[in-house]
Amino acid sequence: MGKVGTANVDLIAKGRWTELDPMLQRKVGVVDELLEVAVQGRKAWIQAVASRQTLKHHRDALEAAEAANELGRRMVSVGNWSKLQQAQTQLALSSAQMNVRRAQHAATQAEAALIKTLRLTGVHSTVALPERLPDVPTMAMTQSMFDDRAEAISSQLPRAESMRNKAHARLAQQAYQATHALALSTRDEVLKVREFITEETVLHYNGMLKSVWDLLGEVSNQSQAVVGAIDAQRDFWIAETDLQWVLQGGAPDSFVSLGGGGGETAAAAGH
């Protein structure tokens, strides 16, 4: 640690790896090992926070489903609803309960993985985590910034390793750009359209133009959109971690795979 320097250790701990001097690769032999540990820890942290964020959403959805089911029970008791209508709210409640159970398991597993990565197993059973991941920045790393950083680190590596790093850098940049675009699109377009559709569906339902099943179906669609946005946010930060690592000479075993579950695959990457 002393060879790396307090300032550089602080940058590594904060995930600001692109601010490190590329010359460290030649000056300090342990910096690559230190960065690999930091990468594993950061990915595990991202996964744990995203899992907890998803769990909170599903718990909120469960509360809404419980309230809807109770309302349905009362509507049936006074003769304003049929048993079939109540069955729909009961089904929605059961689905919400299962989603919470799945999310709780995923959050527990992710936190355990983080504790293991931090080598705190047996010391701590839980760790303090924020309620949500950081917002995805509107502006991505520019091409000129990427080119400058890639060239700076490549010049510090042996020829064969430099060629491998350039190949990894292209893959890391592609994953970074794709996840950034998807995360912004999901947040700024998909979620906003879903919110509009949900609001309109509620208005139509109140005006007796939509059935309870239409309303419950749209609420489910909205919930899926929120979870999708969290997943996209998670994938971006994992891709960003990979990119920063590659631009310090790192070589991930794989990169974020888009299309579901990519974050978990990437979170395990690193060698």
Strand content is under 5%
Tell me the number of structural domains.
1
How many separate helices? 8
CATH topology group:
Outer membrane efflux proteins (OEP)
Number of extended strands: 0
Counting helices, strands and paired strands, the structural category is mainly alpha
- CATH class, please? Mainly Alpha
Helicity range of the residues? over 70%
CATH architecture: Up-down Bundle
Low-confidence spans: 261-271
Supply the CATH superfamily name. Answer: Outer membrane efflux proteins (OEP)
Rg is 23 Å
Give the mean pLDDT: 87
**Order of helix and strand elements from N to C terminus:** HHHHHHHH
Shape: elongated
Major pleated sheet: none
Distance between the termini: 21 Å
Word description of this protein:
The chain is mainly alpha-helical and 271 residues long. The chain has one domain (6-267): Up-down Bundle (Outer membrane efflux proteins (OEP)). It has eight helices and no strands. It has helices at 6-13, 24-27, 31-77, 83-117, 143-154, 159-206, 212-246, 262-267. The radius of gyration is 23 Å and the shape is elongated.
In short:
The chain has helices spanning 6-13, 24-27, 31-77, 83-117, 143-154, 159-206, 212-246, 262-267. It is mainly α.
Topology:
Elements: H1 6-13, H2 24-27, H3 31-77, H4 83-117, H5 143-154, H6 159-206, H7 212-246, H8 262-267
Which tags fit this structure?
Outer membrane efflux proteins (OEP); 271 residues; 8 helices; disordered C terminus; mainly alpha
